[in-house]
Specification:
Largest sheet: 6 strands, antiparallel
Order of helices and strands: HEEEEEEEEE
Helix content: 10-25%
Shape: elongated
């Protein structure tokens, strides 16, 4: 029995030596860059041309028009971003906004200015973007009542 125990102990010792002889370690480096936070400022609201109540119409303000929403932004110099509207559509309302006759749906958001059609842009060497533009379409229904309609959408810039 002692002989068997000695053989097992010798085998374990040899296995440990063999295993450590075939292992190796390599150190590696880790790194990261903290980007400057993006700050967006609205300089002009999205507006639509007037329409007449009682008539269905589609009113579009393109991203290149004077009616487009306009923004400036600061962030990490020479870094790419993507701009988008968070919501697929929003509702502008008048009065108490209750009921479909006091609601106009806005959708088909587009980007322009310093952003391309897919929202891609790059901060300049100073970390500025000065001409970010958003257009959209307002879908007026014949039953929508006369009034001043307003709504809110969310413009988002994300580092690529």
């Amino acid at each position: 029995m002692k002989s068997l125990i000695k053989k097992i102990a010798a085998t374990i010792t040899l296995a440990s030596i063999a295993t450590s002889a075939f292992a190796t370690d390599e150190a590696f480096t880790s790194s990261m860059t903290l980007l400057a936070p993006i700050v967006i400022t609205e300089t002009s609201a999205l507006t639509f041309a007037n329409a007449v109540s009682g008539q269905a119409s589609t009113v579009t303000s393109s991203a290149s028009s004077a009616n487009a929403a306009q923004f400036t932004a600061t962030g990490e110099a020479s870094t790419a971003v993507t701009g988008s509207i968070v919501e697929a559509n929003i509702t502008m309302t008048t009065g108490d906004g209750i009921g479909s006759t006091k609601q106009i749906t806005v959708d088909s958001f587009t980007t322009g200015g310093d952003m391309d059609g897919s929202g891609a842009a790059t901060f300049d060497g100073s970390g500025n973007l000065s001409n970010l533009r958003v257009g959209a379409t307002a879908n007026v229904l014949a039953e929508d009542i006369a009034g001043a309609y307003t709504g809110t959408a969310t413009f988002r810039l994300v580092y690529q």
